[in-house]
Design goal:
This protein has about 140 residues and is mainly alpha-helical. It is built from eight helices and three strands, in the order H-H-E-H-H-E-H-E-H-H-H.
């Protein structure tokens, strides 16, 4: 193999690695994206009359926009994948402390979550890491 061919192969491999590195920035597996986006929107919302809490079943099963139209008030879904009861509890406390006009709570409870079969620190971290610093976040991590 000539020196020119070796250089071509090396440059080709470097090019493939560079393309992979750039594409991986756009195509990463972000398991916490729903929690991150949901909680970002949660803190941007000034009025929440009805709060929906629980795992992703309730997120997929209840259209907060349509429910808001039917009730004629602000409805927000803070549901996250496999949301545990403890996460729901601290999100509820956070909402009460924010004073956003909470009137009712819709809480979905999954048998898998209640039984603890799917208990994972990673699930709780997806909520904790996206909560703003507050006494509720501090109490949650204790």
């Amino acid at each position: 193999m000539s020196k020119k061919n070796v250089i071509s192969v090396v440059l080709f491999v470097i090019g493939i690695i560079a393309i992979y590195a750039v594409l991986s920035l756009f195509a990463r597996d972000d398991a916490n994206s729903l929690a991150r986006v949901s909680l970002h929107d949660y803190y941007e919302t000034d009025e929440i009359n009805t709060l929906i809490l629980g795992p992703s079943h309730v997120y997929a099963g209840i259209d907060s926009g349509k429910l808001s139209e039917v009730l004629g008030e602000s409805v927000f879904s803070a549901a996250t994948p496999m949301q545990e009861s403890e996460s729901s509890y601290y999100l509820l406390k956070e909402t009460i402390d924010r004073g956003v006009g909470l009137k009712r709570v819709v809480l979905e409870i999954s048998p898998a979550v209640i039984s603890g079969r799917n208990k994972s620190d990673n699930i709780a971290i997806s909520v904790i890491s996206n909560m703003k610093n507050s006494k509720n976040k501090f109490a949650y991590v204790q």
